[in-house]
Amino acid sequence: MSEVYAVRRTRLRERCNASGSTAALVSRPANVRYLSGAAPGNAVLLLGRTEDVLVCAQPPDDRVPHNRPDEALRLHVVTGVGGDPAVEAATLAVAQGVDALAVEEHHLTVTRHRAIREAAPPLRLTGIAGAVEQLRVVKDEEEISCLRIGAEIADQALGELLESILVGRTERHLALELERRLVDHGADGPAFPTSVATGPNAGRPGHRPTDRRVEEGDFLSVCLGATYRGYRCEIGRTFVIGTAPADWQIELYDLVFSAQRAGRESLAPGAACRDVDRAARQVLDSAGYAEALPVLTGHGVGLEIDEDPHLTPAAMGKLDACVPVTVEPGVHLPGRGGVRIDDTLVVRPEADGGPELLTITTKELLAL
Q1: Dist CA 37 CA 303 (whole Å)
Q2: Quick check: 97 and 64 in contact, CB under 8 A?
Q3: Cα separation values, 151 from 144, 157, 174, 190, 359, Å
């Protein structure tokens, strides 16, 4: 993997040099990990003029192999209590003869930016905007493998929950059990706070589990994800509890399923992000649910659960091959509940079989 990280750093360095900066300071944790293999607490990465340095507040914990930094990097631990690795990295840049340092202005606080200026006045600070985030959009096969394993873990945890007794248990209890099962099956942890929503809460995006108990006839919507070696995936499903679904539940579910399928089938290299959103959205819009729709149909995943690209009506840009995204349309009807169906897929060309579905738990409307 050392060569992979070196290539990534070279690509960022080329971008910085093209904009007139001889070095870069990367501080956003996901970006530090992408370029160095690890992101110990508060660590920053200096892409220097003569060498690259991972600057940490304390020595990294190397007991877990996949959390060890790239051995090609020099490791510099800040001395003294309360020292800021970003400020330390700026002084190291000056010592290397750097005159212009590109920083992640979208991540640095004003206080930290000011401290860097005060500690290293010779430096001219410039911005690299979202350069690292742009590099992260297209994944290599090793990254996709981590996402695939994370998806398998999430599928397994969800499948086991569906085999248990659900009636009478609270949303909060079910969410905690799912997160425990994720870890039991090898996840680093949940990719985000697990959402379990029942009855009138079902289908609500970002619902925080409550003490409401599962009842017969409820819609039950679940959204969870696993983190594996830092990479995060997502899956969402909706079920009916106890009895055969009511007609309105079947109708709403079939509609959301059709929208989700339209979005999935639109994923292809070169497809406009807004067109994928439109494919799913117009199915629900034409059925009269325009006001009940979420602001986006999906988003990228990787070292963070919400990455570029974003599948929204106003999205710019097109999809590339090897870009993992979610497709997650849903409808929530206040007071009644709703449906969400969410998959993680990897964009692949038609010659390679089209979009690769990572989350494979059934999308059939089951009565549990």
Answers
A1: 11
A2: no
A3: 10, 10, 19, 11, 5
pLDDT grade for 175, boundaries at 50, 70 and 90:
very high
Angle at 264 between CA 263 and CA 265, to 5 degrees: 95
Closest listed residue to residue 235, CA positions, set 139, 361, 364, 143 = 361
Angle at alpha carbon of residue 138, lines to 129 and 33, rounded to 5°: 60
Spatial contact of 233 and 150, defined as CB atoms under 8 Å apart: yes
- Length of the chain (residues): 368
Per the CB < 8 A criterion, the answer to whether 351 and 339 are in contact is no
The type of residue at 286 is S
Q: Which of 283, 320, 285, 281 is nearest to 298 (CA)?
A: 281
> What is the C-alpha end-to-end distance of the chain, expressed in Å?
44
- Phi-psi group of 358: left, alpha or beta (phi > 0 → left; psi -120 to 50 → alpha; rest → beta): alpha
Measured distance CA(89)–CA(105) in Å, rounded: 15
The conformation of residue 289, written as its DSSP 8-state character, comes to -
Q: Count other C-beta atoms under 10 Å from residue 325's C-beta.
A: 29
The CA distance from 212 to 210, in Å, is 5
Give the pTM.
Answer: 0.94
Going by C-beta distance under 8 Å and a sequence separation of 6 or more, which residues neighbour residue 31? 45, 104, 107, 132, 133, 136
Cα distance between residue 336 and residue 75, in whole Å: 56
3-state SS, residue 26? strand
The proportion of the chain whose per-residue pLDDT surpasses 70, expressed as a percent, equals 98
Query: For the stretch 77-104, what's the b/e string if a residue is b when 16 or more beta carbons lie within 10 angstroms of its beta carbon?
Result: bbeeeeebbbbbbbebbbeeebebbbbb
209-222 tens-digit pLDDT: 999 999 999 999 99
Task: Please state, in angstroms and as integers, the Cα–Cα distance from residue 191 to each residue in 115, 224, 226, following that order.
Answer: 33, 7, 5
310-357 pLDDT tens trace:
999 999 999 999 999 999 999 999 999 999 999 999 999 999 999 999
Nearest to 263 by CA among 245, 283, 244: 283
Can you give the C-alpha Rg of the chain in angstroms? 23
